[in-house]
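Q: How would the structure tokens look for this protein?
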Amino acid sequence: MSRLHVYLRPLTIGLLAVVLGVVAPSFAENPADPSPTVSQPQMDLSGWKLVWQDEFDYPNEDLDKHWESQNAPSHHILCSRWRENVVVKDGILHLVNRKQQRGGQDWTSGSIWTRKKFKYGYFECRYRYAEATGTNNSFWLMTRGDDPTEGKRFEIDINEGHYPNEVNTNIHNWSDVVVGDDGKKSHPSAHKGFAFGMRPDYSLPLEIPITTTRLRLASNTSPHFHIRELRVFGVSDRYPDPLSESADQDIDGLVNHAADASARVTASGVYNPNTRPEHAVDGTISTSWTSPDDGEKWIELQWPDPITIGCVQFINGWQKDGHWTGWGQVSDYTIQAHDGKTWQDVATMNSKDEADFGANYHTYGLLWTEDELVFYQDRKELRRTPNEFCKSECPIWLSEAIIHWAGTVSDQIDGTSMKVDWVRYYQKENER
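A: Here is the predicted structure in token form.
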């Protein structure tokens, strides 16, 4: 898990560049449909054999037989991480967040990796998020040490989960370095994020800021929906409350590129002449762009020169007597940026159900083959992409972190934990 800046510039391996020195996602690597949806075929484990597992059904001190612990600060995040923050109790692994000055940082948490190394197969972990914003609840794979003899040094984030309802998948190539025209060094990386559930306000900080001239919001919601404000902020450690009508002024120095006079706003159509696309960027939630009932539904912003985006916010739906109702809200959305040739997904929501991944356990999985990487939640497919460079053995990692780009960091984090029920690794019966 790492945070880096992405620039929309095609690389030979087909992923996107990431600037060194900060922490991780980017864009999906496949062009999206004009009205994108996320297909969710099921992972079928018939013909697979469970060959390794950890159910955490042992005393806390026995954890060290199977896992190594960080025991050091992590300067790119807000916490140091220590074995004392990793607790096995009653069959559950807890990665505990504490407001505690240690290792030069104000917070502590836990990060561990397996002593055993793994390669191709199906990886799955059942866990709950820490119940506070600002936490990064991660299940991932990463090589350690020098470049492997096969493939590249890599990181596969099966899920960097942000409370309450975000799933983030990332793929990083840590071997290759690209130097841009500005002299900045970058690594190839690709991100795709998912948010579940419906609400009036969305704030979507990008773990890897993006540079582009075109951005749009698309949805398949039927019949029509209202976008009351669409904001496109520059890079910052924090962002305003999306429901604040004064959001553009709430944080000194923060720029809303959607309000730029040079920005051109267009849409796939309007519900009626009084709900024009410019109403979505006029600085007030009393007006809206309302989508047509049928056909493609999208609203797009275009700038004459490239801008760098750190967060996208939007408000949707309808207010009645001072309260937001579900009417006019999107039941799905995709935020997309244009790379000069195609639209690339930045963030996607695809569920009509309310989601709280801190209150309930969910499983997060990865099918890793020589040719392909397929990501799952609850064995439903989220993302599928070619395996370009992840070709060598690596440990399994479980990590909790405290970071600004996962939401507001507050004292509510103190005492929360990422709770892991089990981790499992399967291989095909005929491949053992």
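The radius of gyration is 21 Å.

Residues 2-39 have pLDDT under 50 and may be disordered.

Upvote if useful.
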